[in-house]
Design goal:
Length: about 160
């Protein structure tokens, strides 16, 4: 179960989650997806309350998140992707645009959008962050989504 933290008590079992996952580097992102789903279900979120949307790459994640939020059917969003540095600065442009876009969507829609896009220098770093020695960013992203959803609920009840 989600470890209770100050300011985040309650249940997420009735909430709907969408996970937007990049197909690019699927060997990495699929492990992150497995971790995210395990964390959500371990916290009593029924599988029927979790929808997974696959997109071609990290660049497409914000667009899919926006469309999902426009439906009004989701209470929290998880984003999972992997961008690995190459020989040019292409990765920096993707990382900046994706992170800024997702942050803006969370603010605009007042819905938690958890950032689980790996921004690694090497494939080895990505492997270690998708279930290797450094943990699984999918698990961490699900924990962050749960934490923020409960916090948003608490703040909403206080007003």
């Amino acid at each position: 179960m989600f470890q209770e933290r100050k300011g985040t008590t309650g249940s997420v079992s009735e909430n709907r989650f969408v996970i937007v996952v990049s197909k690019y580097h699927a060997s990495i992102t699929s492990k992150m997806l497995d971790g995210a789903i395990q964390t959500l279900t371990r916290n009593l979120v029924p599988a029927s309350q979790i929808e997974v949307l696959w997109v071609p790459g990290a660049w497409e994640i914000p667009g899919a998140v926006q469309r999902a939020l426009e439906t009004g059917t989701f209470d929290a969003v998880l984003t999972l992707g992997c961008v690995i540095r190459g020989e040019t600065t292409h990765d920096q442009h993707i990382n900046t645009t994706v992170s800024n876009g997702l942050g803006r969507l969370s603010l605009d829609y007042k819905i938690p959008v958890a950032f689980g896009v790996l921004t690694c220098n090497t494939m080895e770093q990505a492997i270690q962050r998708s279930g290797g020695d450094v943990g699984n960013k999918g698990n961490e992203t699900a924990e962050a989504a749960i934490h923020m959803l409960l916090l948003f609920k608490e703040i909403g009840q206080a007003s």
